[in-house]
Specification:
The chain contains 3 helices and 9 strands; from the N terminus they run H-E-E-E-E-E-E-E-E-H-H-E. The protein is an alpha+beta fold and 134 residues long. It has one domain. Strands 3, 4, 5, 7, 8 and 9 form a 6-stranded antiparallel sheet that branches. It has a 3-stranded antiparallel sheet with strand order 1-2-6, with no helix packed on it. The longest helix has 13 residues.
């Protein structure tokens, strides 16, 4: 009996855990429109939340609104959540999110824009997605 219990316990330790693995893939336009796909590649339903960020790539004097900071300054979207995603399923979200930096609401275009014709808004910022607690 002891051998059966030990065998059962060791089998449980070797069995792969039934985990959820929700991964996000988001894109954002300079007008602020966001589209996210949440894919659950795991074996358990789960959810995930993210914020989309626009990060400035140059010194502050490049930007039309230099008072908001230079390289590394971040404009963040509202939190976007997937809702429950079943195993091996995908949830698409296109929220009407608002964006803000230092409590100031604005679009990614306004944040990334430059008065200098050599610096065009689409190349002045980098978009990244950051996972946040549900």
């Amino acid at each position: 009996m002891l051998k059966i219990a030990a065998l059962a316990a060791s089998s449980m330790l070797l069995a792969p855990a039934a985990l959820a693995e929700v991964k996000e893939g988001c894109s954002a336009k300079l007008n602020g429109a966001i589209r996210c796909e949440f894919t659950n590649t795991g074996k358990k339903k789960d959810s995930a939340c993210v914020v989309v960020e626009m990060v400035r790539l140059y010194d502050a004097d490049v930007y039309s609104r230099s008072s908001l900071g230079g390289k590394g300054a971040v404009l963040s979207s509202d939190k976007i959540c997937s809702g429950l995603v079943e195993p091996q399923d995908v949830r698409e979200r296109t929220p009407s999110a608002s964006w803000a930096v230092n409590g100031i609401s604005m679009s990614p275009y306004e944040f990334c824009d430059s008065d200098n014709p050599w610096f065009k808004a689409p190349q002045n910022c980098l978009m990244r997605t950051k996972v946040v607690p549900n």
